[in-house]
Amino acid sequence: MTAPDPGPDPEHHDAPAAPAPGADELSVRDRALLALERRPWPGPGAKERAIREELGISPVRYYQLLNALIEDERALREDPVTVNRLRRVRDARRGRR
């Protein structure tokens, strides 16, 4: 039989906690998506390779997550330049359809 959990350690009350779902901060994954999107890419295929190697997801899944993320106001507060650029690109593509 195991002992009950004693609860939070009073000596470590100031340790940062991971954001809870719905919290006012982006997740680590969301920040990684934005960071990858900020980087310049030398040629075709480099970005897709980085998506697979660094994030461990397919490019299709990356773009699904990214498109949802650019609608999130937390992402806009975190990185307004990148989010607004992505929104402009998306809107321009929609206008051509």
From TrEMBL:
InterPro entries: DUF3263. Residues 1-27 are annotated as: Disordered. Residues 16-25 have a biased composition (Low complexity). This is DUF3263 domain-containing protein. It comes from the Bacteria.
